[in-house]
Amino acid sequence: MSTMRYAITGASRGLGLEFVRQLLRRGDSIDAGVRSPPEARQLQELALGAGGRLRVHALDISDPKSVDSFATAVGHEPLDVLINNAGIYGKDGTLTGLDYESMANTFAVNTLGPLRLTAALLPALRRGAARRVVHITSLMGSIGDNGMGGSYDYRISKVALNMATRNMHLELCGEGFVTICMHPGWVRTDMGGPGAPLRPEESVRGMINVIDRLEAEDGGRFFNYTGEELPW
Ligand code: NAP
């Protein structure tokens, strides 16, 4: 497979950082978004050894101005794949104890952020050959799978992201775009916690495999990191 150009959000740590590692290793180029570039030390170290294939830019996905600046920094050169990975968990709470400010912030990051950024990067994606948009969602955003309840902030933000994925697919598939959402598994990151069964390396290896093999008919669907389809 020839090398491609990716944009990845939330690349300072966790799954985003691991995406950068694995894609750099195989020769791809990446524009990585992080909230605070000086603090993203591991990413900056990777950039030093990447011979210009990794560019690190400031990006707060919940801030429209920051999203625009990121798109400007990514520039007009063809972009093949956008991975909307940045996300937060929000707060736990029962119906009478919800923190609505936290919910609104979780929605701004997990749902509105990927929409805004995809819109801002569309010109560069349209110039690309692959035209793939990948939203990192969660099985916790599946209505069909929800047998436990709780986690209102997170579940609501991700189920809305899932709907946005299907909508984007319907809007853009006529131009050859393949838009999907993907569950990374339960992974040992700051969000997943130390008790999670998967290492970031395994999860990201699986997700890259899925992205590499995407065909037109996969657009608008919800995949596990293993490639199996998940219930909405
Ligand atoms: P993580 O280790 O907590 O990392 C989250 C990343 O998102 C960090 O790079 C963080 O940047 C970034 N981020 C947070 N708010 C942001 C904002 N407003 N603008 C830009 N970047 C922001 O989480 P992770 O496990 O790697 O999660 C990555 C994705 O996978 C998320 O969408 C998450 O919902 C999803 N997911 C994870 C699991 C799991 O088990 N780990 C399971 C299902 C789904 P800072 O360093 O600046 O905070």
Could you please describe the fold and organization of this structure?
- With about 230 residues, the protein is α/β, with parallel strands linked by helices.
- Helices cover about 40% and strands about 15% of the residues.
- Strands 3-2-1-4-5-6-7 form a 7-stranded parallel sheet, sandwiched between helices.
- Helix 4 links the parallel strand 4 and strand 5.
- Helix 1 packs across helix 6 and helix 4 (about 100-125) runs parallel beside helix 5 (about 150-170).
- It is globular and about 50 Å long.
- The two termini are about 30 Å apart.
- The mean pLDDT is about 95.
- NADP nicotinamide-adenine-dinucleotide phosphate (NAP) binds next to helix 1.
Could you estimate the helical fraction of the residues in percent? 40-55%
* Whole-angstrom Rg: 17 Å
Q: What gross morphology would you assign? A: globular
Enumerate the spans where pLDDT stays under 50 for 5 or more consecutive residues: none
Average residue-wise pLDDT = 97
The biggest sheet amounts to:
7 strands, parallel
The sequence of SSEs as H and E is EHEHEHEHEHEHE
Q: Ions, cofactors, ligands: which are bound?
A: NADP nicotinamide-adenine-dinucleotide phosphate
Structural class: alpha/beta
What is the number of helical segments per DSSP (H or I, 4+ residues)?
A: 6
How much of the sequence lies in strands comes to: 5-15%
For the secondary structure, the number of strands is 7
The neighbouring-strand order within the major sheet is 3-2-1-4-5-6-7
Distance between the first and last residues' Cα: 31 Å
Q: What does the oligomeric state look like here?
A: single chain
